[in-house]
Design goal:
560 residues, alpha+beta, Thrombin, subunit H, 19 helices
Length: 560
């Protein structure tokens, strides 16, 4: 559609569609087209248009685009409270808390005549103070000293003025409980259990209505305060089945349950709710989950009956799926330089799954640009210098065993398959290798793949990022750009990718590819015009085929 044919509804729809497509370049283009149209109009942009666009961007967690667009709406004269509110929300979720705090303090002052928007501003102020407190991790320096009481005051101000604001009320309850746990004195503190029961009564009076998702989450939190775990599960079930629940909401609830309520997957009361929320987030479109190795191990101890009670018929399948994912994470390794600095990721495979003569030995697969002895590859580390550790295998309180590379079995240049296959010593034990998917790559655009790795060789953190499979060069319709190599493209994470990570399929957590690159402007595959923000992996079958040809029946090292 040309600019002359464009209409405001069509441009708004284009932005929303681009946000759903997960193509950042397309989203940027459509946002610019919308702004260009609005600049040509004689009047400032309608606030309802800004609200619609910004709300949809929040749902899909495009906080960068949300911040940029809100800024441009304001500069075009659309300075409605709702625009500033979404601007502040984007700043918070991007970690820019001080900027958000300054903006929200001004917004709260200017919106006092509009109680609905004033309540939203105070709620976000409470969120900022709450995050400042939790981020301080026990420190009482600077702003952290009064942040918890400031957060309580922000939420309580609105709840005391209008008891229908149950979300503000339950935040008061949660923060009062946190204050007691941390020994923080709160002036004129209310009885949080009485408040929780009042909130439950208020929500239960409307149980026949189709309530907003936040009400169900509020009821679940209130049950935590009175230690009614069965009812918390019942309300959480309603929450996760609500029509309007999305990844943004689930991530917020998970953050509240872990950071404020302190729920842990360790057998303590309420801890059974955490694995269910994490699995629901990971399955949800735009969902993302970050876990430390210790959390990976605790997740494997989660109880399946909680999944069944909360998620119903799909609970057992979801539980089994999540446990498989946690098991795969144990086979993912960090690759270090001699000084201990992480430079990439690798993962264990059983030799015969790649090439039958390699038998049952466990081998490490990673990128050639991470691990190689070929000077032309400009690898981050050589086999003699590399240290390999499986962080999720470490015993509590101890560092993971460091393995050394004894042999590079096979190596393919970065501009070919960008792969290195290595033997380790000592051989890893008590870990199942990642299975390989032998079925063709899916053709459906709705399919997703999952990447587990150490982002940029980072510290003890696994990042499970749901990635939509954007395209691939595999059969039957793919057209490989290089003979013997099929590429996969999937949605780029918000953080840089993990070189050498396994790329898993959606159903059985089986390896479909080896991650090796990510770009903001990646050329599209199969002769398609244009670029997009994408991650790129090598199809595991391409690696299998090349390895078989290279070794040719021999187990001596081979290079391609």
């Amino acid at each position: 559609m040309s600019n002359s044919e464009a209409t405001l509804p069509s441009l708004v729809d284009a932005v929303i569609s681009a946000a759903e497509s997960l193509e950042d370049e397309r989203l940027e283009t459509t946002c610019e087209a919308l702004m260009a149209y609005l600049r040509r109009q004689p009047a400032r942009p309608p606030p309802e248009v800004a609200k619609k666009v910004l709300s949809e961007l929040r749902k899909s967690r495009h906080f960068g685009a949300m911040q940029s667009l809100a800024d441009k709406f304001i500069r075009l004269g659309c300075d409605a409270h709702v625009v500033y509110r979404h601007y502040a929300q984007a700043l918070i979720d991007r970690g820019e808390l001080i900027a958000a705090l300054e903006l929200l303090m001004r917004l709260a002052e200017r919106s006092k005549a509009d109680f609905s928007e004033y309540a939203e501003a105070c709620g976000l102020l409470g969120r900022v103070f709450k995050q400042i407190y939790t981020d301080a991790e026990g420190s009482r320096l600077g702003m952290a000293e009064g942040a918890l009481t400031d957060a309580i005051a922000c939420y309580r101000r609105i709840y005391d003025a209008d008891r229908s604001n149950v979300w503000h009320g339950v935040n008061v309850v949660a923060l009062l409980r946190r204050a007691k746990r941390d020994g923080v004195a709160v002036p004129d503190a209310a009885d949080e259990k009485l408040m929780a029961r009042a909130l439950l009564t208020q929500i239960e009076e409307k149980w026949t209505d189709d309530l907003p998702a936040w009400h169900y989450a509020t009821a679940a939190e209130a049950c935590l305060a009175i230690e009614d775990w069965a009812s918390a599960e019942r309300w959480l079930q309603k929450y996760l089945r609500a029509k309007d629940v999305d990844a943004f909401g689930i991530a917020s609830t998970l953050r509240q349950f872990t950071q404020i309520w302190g729920l842990r997957v360790d057998g303590s009361p309420g801890g059974e709710l955490i694995p269910v929320l994490r699995a629901a987030l990971l399955l949800r479109k735009h969902g993302r989950l970050d876990l430390t190795p210790a959390q990976v191990n605790r997740m494997q101890d989660a109880k399946g009956d909680a999944f069944e009670r909360i998620l119903g018929d799909t609970g057992v399948l979801t539980y089994e799926w999540m446990c498989e994912g946690m098991q795969r994470a144990r086979a993912v390794a960090k690759i270090r330089q001699p000084d201990g600095r992480g430079v990439g990721t690798g993962f264990l495979l059983r030799g015969r799954e790649l090439y039958a003569p390699l038998g049952d030995q466990l081998l490490l697969l990673t990128n050639a640009h991470v691990l190689s002895n070929n000077a032309a590859h400009r690898a981050a580390v050589s086999s003699d210098d590399a240290q390999v550790s499986f962080e999720a295998l470490a015993e509590p309180g101890r560092t993971a065993t460091r393995h050394r590379v004894t042999e590079l079995v096979w190596n393919s240049a970065p501009d070919a398959l960008d792969a290195s296959l290595a033997r380790l010593e000592p051989a890893p034990t008590n870990v199942e290798p990642c299975p390989i998917a032998n079925s063709p790559l899916p053709a459906e655009e709705s399919q997703r793949v999952y990447v587990i790795g150490h982002p940029l060789g980072g510290e003890l953190s696994f990042s499970l990022q749901d990635n939509r499979l954007l395209d691939h060069e595999g059969p039957p319709d793919g057209h490989p750009s290089r003979r013997g190599r099929c590429l996969l493209h999937y949605r780029a994470p918000t953080e840089p990718g993990s070189s050498g990570s396994p790329v898993f399929d959606q159903k059985g957590w089986k390896v479909v590819g080896l991650h090796h690159a990510g770009r903001e402007f990646m050329p599209k595959l199969n002769g398609k015009i244009g670029t997009y923000a994408a991650n790129e992996g090598i199809w595991i079958r391409s690696i299998q085929d090349c390895l078989t040809l290279a070794l040719g029946g021999s187990t001596s090292p081979a290079k391609v």
